[in-house]
Amino acid sequence: MAEQWNPPVELSEREERVMKRVKKRPLFRFFREHRHVLFDEQTQKELLKAYGPPRGKAALPPAQMALAMLMQAAFGVPDHDVPELTACDSRWQMVLGCLGVDEPIMSQGSVFNFRMRAIHHGFDRLLIDRTVQLAKETKGYSAAKLRAALDSSPLVGAGRVEDTFNLIARAATHVVRAAAERLGKPVSEVAEMAGIPLVEASSIKAALDLNWSDKAERSQGLRTLLGQVDSLRAWLAAELGEACKQPPLEAHLATLKQVCEQDIEPDPDDGGPRIKRGVERDRRISISDADMRHGRKSKSKRFDGYKQHVLIDMDIPGLIRSGVVTPANQPESEAAAPLVEDAEAQGDELGELHVDRAYVGNGPVTQRPSLRLVAKPHPVRNGDLFSKEDFEMNFERMTLTCPGSVTVPMSYGQTVKFPKDRCAACSLRPRCTRAAKNGRQVRIHDQEPLQAHLRSVSRTRDGREEYRQRVAVEHALARIAQLKGRRARYRGKERNDFDLRRHIVVSNCYVLDRMWRQAA
Length: 520
What we know:
The protein is α+β, with helices and mostly antiparallel strands. The protein has helices at residues 13-19, 26-38, 41-48, 62-75, 81-88, 90-96, 108-121, 123-139, 164-183, 187-194, 204-208, 215-239, 249-263, 333-344, 420-425, 429-432, 448-458, 461-467, 471-484, 493-519, and strands at residues 146-156, 264-266, 273-275, 293-296, 302-313, 320-327, 350-355, 372-374, 392-394, 399-401, 407-409, 415-417, 441-443. Strand 10 and strand 11 form a beta hairpin. The two termini are 39 Å apart.
């Protein structure tokens, strides 16, 4: 069974010589000087809970493996280089307590297996909580409520993004390969028997050999592909039967069905299939990464993959309290709840939250009565005509009064329509609406009282200055991007969640290093 790690605290003479050579890499010094504090006895007990009775070769202490995992994230090292660095880099050896060894203290398989164990048992959250605890102890944290800010940045997915033809063909290829493995036959033979020879080609479009600028030929190519897919399904049902309901065939068939249903619809002109007009809201865009989605940073800027969100502590500069990765098409407001839940699990109730307007939705966080929300309101510009701000809202009576003193009832989430006869006779009509046949219309937000409050705050100098404090979370995101890049290292939400959080631990270690050096 794995044991606790108790490396020496005091530096040896050789370690002192190494320390003099790592001045430009402060994390080596930080990890060596404070590894016993970061991985205290209680933290090591939590890590050891993930290990059962001994099996085979004795495992390295999980704290030692976890520190290697953080070093890997801090310096962008691939799995296969980690064991080699423990054998040939004195800086790594110093930090991991193996200075002078000639052979790697771990294998590449150990690095991978520990990461899978860390993902399963939540070691990433445990280590974030530990860095937050140390920062709070150093700061001398009071019992005041947490002041936090959150924001997100795009994370380009690691999976291949493909069009409809390639998605369907690649999904079918996985089905054929799984069937071939189950039958113990070559893929080419199974593809021929199943009536889908297209999957043997290195390129589906080259195999179809179409004039892709010709609509009729594209349509015929789609019919050919889907016809072979139908032939594959029929062959599988006849040859493998119940095996189609078992892994891995079941999962591959489900993927094939998913991409066909999302991307194909009947053609109303000739009754055949066609590529669906528009894009499904939750459309799968990659076979290799099922969680990736299309997303937008703005109306003109699209990206494929994920969004990574972080929540920072406004009272401890640079300290990140929690992080989460979501598919790129998921609204920001849905990410707020897990971020706040993780932060409050560290012992502080959220009292003030600084956010971008995209997070101001109908989620449970921003609707808390006790929460002080700092955000920009949604814009109400209307060119040179009267905007919503020129109308008087009475939230007790739920009425809306226009600049011409006409009052009508209003409801949250609905559009208020003023009587067209009253608007037609109003002297202010040229400044209010250009609608020829209708009266003025005003959209009432689902959270209109909050929006009205945010608009009133934004008109004050103090309110605008307070909103600018949110720039701290943008700096934190920039730090994370500097550490891990803007492209996902792994496929799948779960693994990218873990990767974000272990980089948050590294970022927080830089914060702790600064705090402890200032306090010294």
